[in-house]
């Protein structure tokens, strides 16, 4: 029993260690929670609602603090007390969106808080007027010219204060926003970095910075404050820069650090998985997200895309109904409904909902592309072209829209014309087999067979999703009477199909087997030929031919003709595995083990 | 709620998924500048005290003011002031009253605006340009909502203050603090480079205010016209692109701007942007072209066909023949499917152009094209085809009368349909053909006809002359013709003019560059300064490969690098035979024959020369034929049959003296003199023969000295001296000997080869 006791003792020691580690971690979290709570109140006072939302979501994911631990409210200065009434009045006007009125009552205040609110209301007033005027402009050409008139004045005043170093974290943030709106991007980045140093906890500044960073080199060149929030920023940045692996790592470490309940992190991870087309992971995460936060609308359009790809009709329908009940005038809701109708093949309605999404937000990129797809389904090519063009205008790097344009022209049988669009799409996604297959098909139609072959082979090399490239390549070789190459391609194709477990297109497998049977027969490799012929018999459409081939083989064998042992024959099953072609899976002769 | 919601937000104006480019259906709208123009017009109708001259100047101003882009007020007033200072002042005053007053002043202005025009005897009737403009503006003004009217008024105030607020004259007090801020803005901008750039942009912004659709259309039409007819006067490529980008930023739906961008990037040979713009244009055009489902003659299907065709043209222009062919096949297929004969016709004419560019024979295609075009009543394409056929026929050696007849027939067609562009081309072509045949007088005449002709097209946008390719070609011929006659001053004048009219970066500049180089090369060769000629060879080769190779051979021959020269000529001949360039083949043969002479292979040169003669006669190339005869005669002379030589020389003398270049004339006469000497060698009337030869030589010497051809001048003087010596004319002999000595000293040490024909 002594030994047992010792053992138990050991166990408790371990537990202690664990607890100690956790408590230090937890101590960190307490600090973080305190910081979050104080920053929430700061942002709230200044009307920065989105940052409040983000911080609150994060704070909610952490354990509640005991009474004693709650951070005291920020101390008031003399100036704050002076401005207290004016600030209260102005804030109430501000909350009611009467920005000019708020600014008017704040004009004489000297405290930093009041100054920020003063400038911020002036900025928002300009933005609001700009939006209103967009509807009310004098003519269509003037539309692009509507500007926030307040920006220049704000910039002058803020830059003056900036030079004398009078700006605090919030005003720096506002200064950065003004600069960005004036398209002074370089200056804006500097100011935002400064803002993050002055007040690291303000998520808005980080988010703005995120929108301005275009590549990883730029990210590395910035000197950012060393704070836990930086990890959130980096993870977000990696997602934006399509460095999904790094992003996932970061998020994982954040979860391990104690933020496992954060809906924000879950949604970000789900989006990351969506971007690398890991559909199952993304779906399960989104489901989890919806359990935790059933009334969430953000990111639900991405979720619906996933459901659409998997053709999960009931789930999509449920999601759509649910969202409509929450808020039907949201871009995300409209996109979800659009996807829903599209899955039900009601393309007119789908297009209608995408249009509605665009009315809500004309710069919504995804909706333009999706609408293009709907018009394609409806065979309204001109409208589709238009929608895709709009998508490209919003974002030149939208490869889906370029691909869609290519498809549209392909439908119009303009194979040469669509090459340009496919090429653009391919440039943007060099490792996406779909563009390569499309290019190959076009070249094939234009009888540029050598180009077509290159495209197909490349499509296979980068990892063909639809598994069509090899088959097309094989058929091309067959057409050109290059039987060895054709056989080679068919072999790899069959290996691919069988090794991935699920059987997709029976017709094509049987075609391959049929061809291979004939090929081996011609080359007097009767063993392989009969194997292929037997496999053929498993398929309805090739059964007769398989049987015929088997008969032929036995006939020839009866005549005593020996199977050729010509080693020089290329790429037969056996020699494949030590060939340097990219062979990945099971031994090719092991066909019998696979039940088709 | 829903409807309120929808109307509040920007509505992309979609019907059936097609966004209409012009959302409000208004092509024009009221801007502060337009108000100024309206005030001016109003002032002009009211004021009776204007002098006739002033009124006329103002009247001339109206159209550009209406159509042009918005000007700043200062600029506008200055323009008006130049015509009539009084009116400018009146306009300024009225604007000032409107600005310092209240909104009602502007409103009352628009209320009273139509009054002067409603009179029956008014100068500006309802349907006149002014009347239409006025009514457009009134309509646009009346459509404005309350807030828009107010916005317009504040815009007017700002417009006025921006330009005149800082001036001491008008009593408006500029908003002080805003001004201060602005000046401080400048301060910051001097401190920070990047900020300064931004500020400058900001300052420029009011100048580059967005164009209304009308103004934009006018701008595009004008620039496109200028690009086609007189590239010099169009905006510089970079500036034009900037304007276009600006226009597209404000209205991405303005498809025509993309097309102009395509044309513009073609100018600078930018294949990337031009493809991009072209495709973008057609993507946009497809939207505006009628409803989506029609596939018929009009609208959508049509623009698809032309999209493919234009893409083919683009690849053709960049020399991507394979791509062009694929695109063309596509266009043809689509056009066939939809039975669009007109489009097919266009495709066909591009097809033969493509074949021609690839260097294969396309006359059958062209003939078909002409027939079909005539059948479908497309005169432009038909005569374009005929011109192309004539060109092919001319190089292929068709009978001259047939070609000329064809050209005459097309000319009738051109005049009937007022195809002035084709008239120009036809004249330029005739010039080239005459030149090729060696009829310099006729060529000269044709060139002059074109240059002196008044263009049929209206003189538009202030373009007085058409700076088209036809003019460049004709002027180049003119320069070369003058140089041939030794009129180097005149030819360099012409070249200078060409340089001005077609600056080096423009599309037709290569023509005169080649021409200039050729003339310089010839002069250097004639002067015997081969080292000067050599650098020209590389330059010529850059512009024209075959010509460059030929000149390289010439220089090598002149420098006695016989083997190298022979190799170059052989290579050139192979190249020529591939491209069927008869003129060059003959010239190569002649030069090769000259090389044979150098190694005294006169008899081996004969078959070559005879072959050349046959070719030249077949293709009616008179100048080359005559030159071949000279070569033949020289060979015969050297082979010891001067009588024969003299016989055939007579045949060639007449055309050479009538049409030939000065150099050819001199050479011919020198050869005649040599033959005369040789013939008279043994006979008793030797003296008369020699005297004849002396006369001939005198004439030849005159030609050579005019051309500055010292090498040959020296030979001539030498011969003259010898003849005079033989005849016993001591004084003349000494004179000629002195001349010989002088020329000989100027020249580099003589190469003791044979003086050629």
Automatic annotation (TrEMBL), chain A:
Does the keyword section mention Iron?
no
- InterPro entries per the UniProt record, alphabetical: APC8 (IPR007192), TPR-like_helical_dom_sf (IPR011990), TPR_rpt (IPR019734)
**Swiss-Prot/TrEMBL GO biological process terms:** anaphase-promoting complex-dependent catabolic process; cell division; positive regulation of mitotic metaphase/anaphase transition; protein ubiquitination
Gene3D superfamilies per the UniProt record, alphabetical: Tetratricopeptide repeat domain
* Domain (Cdc23): residue spans on this chain: 31-270
Signal peptide range in chain numbering: none
Q: Does the keyword Repeat apply?
A: yes
The UniProt keywords, alphabetically, are: Cell cycle, Cell division, Mitosis, Repeat, TPR repeat, Ubl conjugation pathway
Pathway in which the depicted protein is active: Protein modification; protein ubiquitination
Q: One GO term of the cellular component aspect?
A: anaphase-promoting complex
- One family from Pfam that matches here is TPR_8
Q: What are the start and end residues of each TPR repeat?
A: 263-296, 331-364, 365-398
Its family?
A: Belongs to the APC8/CDC23 family.
Q: What is this protein called?
A: Cyclosome subunit 8
Q: Which gene encodes it?
A: CDC23
From TrEMBL, chain B:
Q: Which UniProt keywords apply?
A: Cell cycle, Cell division, Cytoplasm, Cytoskeleton, Mitosis, Nucleus, Phosphoprotein, Repeat, TPR repeat, Ubl conjugation pathway
List the Pfam families.
ANAPC5 (PF12862), Apc5_N (PF21371)
Q: Which residues form the Anaphase-promoting complex subunit 5 N-terminal domain?
A: 30-161
Q: Give the InterPro entries listed for this entry.
A: Apc5, Apc5_dom, Apc5_N, TPR-like_helical_dom_sf
Gene3D superfamilies noted in UniProt: Tetratricopeptide repeat domain
Top-level taxon of origin? Eukaryota
Which residue ranges does the record assign to the Anaphase-promoting complex subunit domain? 258-357, 456-498, 596-653
Record localization: Cytoplasm, Cytoskeleton, Spindle; Nucleus
Q: Where does the signal peptide begin and end?
A: none
Q: Where is this region: Disordered?
A: 187-208
Q: Tell me the pathway.
A: Protein modification; protein ubiquitination
The family note in this entry says:
Belongs to the APC5 family.
Please describe what this protein does: Component of the anaphase promoting complex/cyclosome (APC/C), a cell cycle-regulated E3 ubiquitin ligase that controls progression through mitosis and the G1 phase of the cell cycle. The APC/C complex acts by mediating ubiquitination and subsequent degradation of target proteins: it mainly mediates the formation of 'Lys-11'-linked polyubiquitin chains and, to a lower extent, the formation of 'Lys-48'- and 'Lys-63'-linked polyubiquitin chains. The APC/C complex catalyzes assembly of branched 'Lys-11'-/'Lys-48'-linked branched ubiquitin chains on target proteins.
Q: What is this protein called?
A: Anaphase-promoting complex subunit 5
Q: Supply the gene name.
A: ANAPC5
């Amino acid at each position: 029993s002594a030994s047992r006791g010792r053992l138990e003792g050991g166990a408790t020691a371990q537990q202690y260690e664990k607890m100690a580690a956790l408590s230090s971690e937890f101590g960190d979290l307490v600090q973080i929670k305190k910081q979050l709570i104080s920053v929430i109140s700061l942002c709230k006072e200044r009307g920065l609602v989105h940052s409040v939302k983000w911080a609150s979501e994060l704070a909610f994911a952490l354990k509640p603090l005991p009474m004693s631990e709650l951070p005291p409210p920020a101390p008031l200065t003399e100036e704050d007390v002076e401005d207290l009434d004016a600030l209260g009045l102005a804030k109430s006007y501000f909350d009611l969106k009467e920005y000019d009125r708020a600014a008017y009552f704040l004009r004489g205040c000297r405290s930093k808080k009041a100054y920020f609110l003063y400038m911020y209301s002036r900025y928002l007033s300009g933005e609001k007027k700009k939006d209103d005027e967009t509807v009310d402009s004098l003519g269509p050409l003037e539309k692009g010219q509507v500007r926030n008139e307040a920006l220049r004045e704000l910039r002058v005043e803020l830059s003056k204060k900036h030079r004398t170093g009078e700006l605090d974290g919030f005003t720096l943030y506002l200064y950065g926003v003004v600069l960005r709106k004036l398209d002074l991007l370089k200056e804006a980045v500097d100011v935002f970095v400064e803002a993050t140093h002055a007040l690291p906890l303000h998520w808005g500044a980080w988010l703005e910075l995120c929108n301005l960073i275009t590549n990883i080199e730029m990210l590395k060149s910035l000197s950012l404050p060393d704070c836990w929030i930086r990890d959130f920023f980096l993870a977000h940045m990696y997602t934006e820069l399509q460095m999904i692996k790094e992003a996932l790592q970061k998020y994982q470490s954040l979860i391990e650090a104690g933020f496992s309940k954060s809906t924000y992190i879950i949604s970000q991870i789900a989006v990351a998985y969506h971007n690398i087309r890991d559909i199952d992971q993304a779906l399960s995460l989104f489901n989890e997200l919806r359990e935790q936060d059933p009334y969430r609308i953000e990111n639900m359009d991405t979720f619906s895309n996933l459901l659409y790809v998997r053709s999960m009709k009931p789930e999509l329908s449920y999601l759509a109904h649910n969202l409509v009940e929450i808020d039907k005038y949201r871009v995300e809701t409209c996109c979800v409904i659009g996807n829903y109708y599209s899955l039900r093949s009601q393309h007119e309605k789908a297009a209608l909902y995408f249009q509605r999404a665009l009315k809500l937000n004309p710069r919504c990129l995804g909706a333009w592309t999706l609408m293009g797809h709907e018009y394609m389904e409806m065979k309204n090519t001109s409208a589709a072209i238009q929608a895709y063009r709009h998508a490209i205008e919003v974002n030149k790097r939208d490869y889906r829209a370029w691909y869609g344009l290519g498809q549209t022209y392909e439908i119009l049988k303009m194979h040469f014309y669509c090459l340009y669009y496919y090429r653009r799409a391919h440039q943007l996604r060099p490792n996406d087999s779909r563009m390569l297959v499309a290019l190959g098909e076009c070249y094939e139609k234009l009888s540029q067979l050598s180009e077509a072959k290159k495209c197909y082979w490349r499509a296979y090399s980068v990892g063909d999703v639809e598994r069509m490239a090899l088959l097309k390549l094989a058929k091309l070789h067959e057409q050109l009477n290059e039987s060895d190459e054709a056989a080679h391609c068919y072999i790899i194709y069959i290996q691919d199909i069988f090794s991935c477990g699920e059987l997709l297109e029976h017709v094509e497998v049987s075609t391959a087997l049929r061809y291979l049977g004939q090929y081996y027969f011609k080359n007097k490799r009767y063993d392989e030929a009969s194997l292929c012929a037997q496999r053929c018999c498993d398929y309805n459409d090739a059964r007769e031919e398989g049987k015929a081939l088997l008969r032929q083989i036995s006939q020839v064998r009866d005549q005593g003709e020996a199977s050729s042992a010509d080693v020089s024959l290329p790429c037969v099953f056996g020699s494949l595995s030590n060939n340097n072609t990219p062979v990945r899976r099971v031994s090719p002769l092991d066909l019998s083990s696979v039940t088709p | 709620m829903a409807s309120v919601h929808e109307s509040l937000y920007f509505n992309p104006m979609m019907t059936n998924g097609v966004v209409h480019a012009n959302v409000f259906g208004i092509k024009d709208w009221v801007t502060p500048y337009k108000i100024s123009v309206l005030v001016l017009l109003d002032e002009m109708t009211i004021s009776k005290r204007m002098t006739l001259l002033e009124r006329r100047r103002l009247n001339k101003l109206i159209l550009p003011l209406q159509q042009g882009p918005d000007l700043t007020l200062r600029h506008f007033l200055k323009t008006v002031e130049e015509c009539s200072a009084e009116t400018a002042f009146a306009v300024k005053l009225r604007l000032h009253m409107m600005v310092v007053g209240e909104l009602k002043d502007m409103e009352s202005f628009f209320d009273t605006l139509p009054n002067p025009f409603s009179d029956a005897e008014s100068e500006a009737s309802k349907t006149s340009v002014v009347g239409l403009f006025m009514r457009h503006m009134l309509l646009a003004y009346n459509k404005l909502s309350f807030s828009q009217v107010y916005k317009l008024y504040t815009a007017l105030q700002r417009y006025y203050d921006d330009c005149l607020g800082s001036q001491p004259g008008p009593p408006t007090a500029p908003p002080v603090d805003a001004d201060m801020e602005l000046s401080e803005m400048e301060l910051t901008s001097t401190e920070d480079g990047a900020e300064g750039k931004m500020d400058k942009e900001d300052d420029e912004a009011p100048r580059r205010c967005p164009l209304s659709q009308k103004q934009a259309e006018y701008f595009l039409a004008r620039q496109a016209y200028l690009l086609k007819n007189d590239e010099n006067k169009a905006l510089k490529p970079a500036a034009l692109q900037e304007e276009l980008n600006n226009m597209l930023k404000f209205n991405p739906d303005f498809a025509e701007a993309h097309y102009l961008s395509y044309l513009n990037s073609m100018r600078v040979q930018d294949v990337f942007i031009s493809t991009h713009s072209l495709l973008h244009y057609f993507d946009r055009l497809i939207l505006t072209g009628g409803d989506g489902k029609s596939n018929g003659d009009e609208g959508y299907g049509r623009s698809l066909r032309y999209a493919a065709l234009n893409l083919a043209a683009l690849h053709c222009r960049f020399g991507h023949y394979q791509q062009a062919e694929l695109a063309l096949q596509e266009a043809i297929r689509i056009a066939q499917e939809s039975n669009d004969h007109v489009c097919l016709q266009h495709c066909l004419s591009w097809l033969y152009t493509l074949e021609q560019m690839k260097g294969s024979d396309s006359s059958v295609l062209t003939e078909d094209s002409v027939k079909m075009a005539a059948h479908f009543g497309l005169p432009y394409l038909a005569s374009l085809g005929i011109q192309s056929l004539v060109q092919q026929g001319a190089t292929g050696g068709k009978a001259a009368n047939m070609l000329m007849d064809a050209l005459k027939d097309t000319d009738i067609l051109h005049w009937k349909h007022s195809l002035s562009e084709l008239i120009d081309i036809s004249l330029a072509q005739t010039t080239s053909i005459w030149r090729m045949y060696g009829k310099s007088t006729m060529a000269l005449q044709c060139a002059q006809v074109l240059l002196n002709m008044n263009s049929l097209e209206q003189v538009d946008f202030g373009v007085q002359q058409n700076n088209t390719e036809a003019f460049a070609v004709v002027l180049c011929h003119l320069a070369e013709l003058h140089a041939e006659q030794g009129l180097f001053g005149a030819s360099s004048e012409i070249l200078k003019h060409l340089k001005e009219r077609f600056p080096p970066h423009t599309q037709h500049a290569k023509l005169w560059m080649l021409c200039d180089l050729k003339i310089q090369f010839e002069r250097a060769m004639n002067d015997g300064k081969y080292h000067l000629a050599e650098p020209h060879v590389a330059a010529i080769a850059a512009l024209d490969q075959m010509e460059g190779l030929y000149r390289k051979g010439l220089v090598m021959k002149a420098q006695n690098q016989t083997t190298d020269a022979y190799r170059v000529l052989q290579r050139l001949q192979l190249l020529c035979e591939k491209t069927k360039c008869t003129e060059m083949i003959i010239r190569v043969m002649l030069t090769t024959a000259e090389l044979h002479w150098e190694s005294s292979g006169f008899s081996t040169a004969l078959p070559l020369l005879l072959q050349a003669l046959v070719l030249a006669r077949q293709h009616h190339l008179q100048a080359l034929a005559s030159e071949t005869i000279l070569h033949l005669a020289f060979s015969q002379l050297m082979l010891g049959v001067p009588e024969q030589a003299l016989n055939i020389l007579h045949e060639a003398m007449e055309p050479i003296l009538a049409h030939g270049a000065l150099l050819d004339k001199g050479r011919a006469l020198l050869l005649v003199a040599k033959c005369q000497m040789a013939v008279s060698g043994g006979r008793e009337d030797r003296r008369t023969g020699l005297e004849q030869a002396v006369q001939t030589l005198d004439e030849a010497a005159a030609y050579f000295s005019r051309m500055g051809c010292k090498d040959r001048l020296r030979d001539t003087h030498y011969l003259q001296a010898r003849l005079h010596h033989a005849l016993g004319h001591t004084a003349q002999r000494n004179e000629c000997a002195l001349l010989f000595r002088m020329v000989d000293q100027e020249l580099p040490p003589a190469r003791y080869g044979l003086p050629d024909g």
